[in-house]
Amino acid sequence: MLQLILETVFHESLPKITQDLLFKPLGMTRSFYALTSGEENYTSAFHTGYTPCDPPYHIQPELAAAGLWTTPGDLLRVVRAIQSSLNSKNDGFLQAKWAHMMLTEVQESMARGWVAPKGSGSFAHGASNEPGYLCYLIGFANLEHDQAKAAPVTDCGIATAAAYIKNWPEFPTKKILGLVPFTSWVAVDARWEERASKWSKDWEILVGEGGVPMVKFQHLAPMRLYSASVPAKMYPEGSSVDLVVGGLEMMFRLGWEEGKRIVELWQGDISKLEQM
Prior knowledge:
Largest sheet: 8 strands, antiparallel
Mean pLDDT: 86
Helix content: 10-25%
Radius of gyration: 22 Å
Oligomer: single chain
Number of strands: 13
Structural class: alpha+beta
Distance between the termini: 52 Å
Strand content: 25-35%
Strand order of the largest sheet: 4-5-6-7-10-11-12-13
Low-confidence stretches: 143-147
Order of helices and strands: HHHHHEEEHHEEEEEEEEEE
């Protein structure tokens, strides 16, 4: 719909409009809506790390929604333009008021064109096209101190890990994608022992042999817990302790709610566990 509106207003094709108003002004030299004849500098799509897609790519007729060819560097130029516009004195790529409006939540974490939950300090968008292409872009902006960070990655778990490694703020990956993060190499925060107890919904966090953290569900055998590669959530009482179950898509976030200790169970959705 937006493509039709733009083409009607400007009396030009979407590729021409974006080239003149977006790609060229921002220096996005590797962004376009069709591979030119003889172009070989593009990434082939794979179903897995070993199985290439056949055909290697599709030509998507819905250009605005699914037809863009671009690079991580060019995506960062878009994010940086938005970040600088947020702090501009009407000399940015966008006027500050329009940049703020673009990133203001409208409904259920969605802003205008971006996933930007209120109070998160981040804006993001994911993209995937068959066959085999996947991308996730996230930007941060500290409007008071003009600090900005951004990362385009080809896997959403990598986005979480990158933020964790670089000590970036928490961003709402779970709300956006429902992801359980990778295991971290860092030793488990000793504060986990404060939560060694029985919890609602038949869960129990316990101390295993050698003092390692374990978790148990009903009568099943205890499972080892490891540090999660995800930025901690900040509470008035302190930062969360985030633990993933070895070998399973499951994470336990040890946090607080209204001053009371709780555990969040991440497993396709977030459920709250209360101490018994």
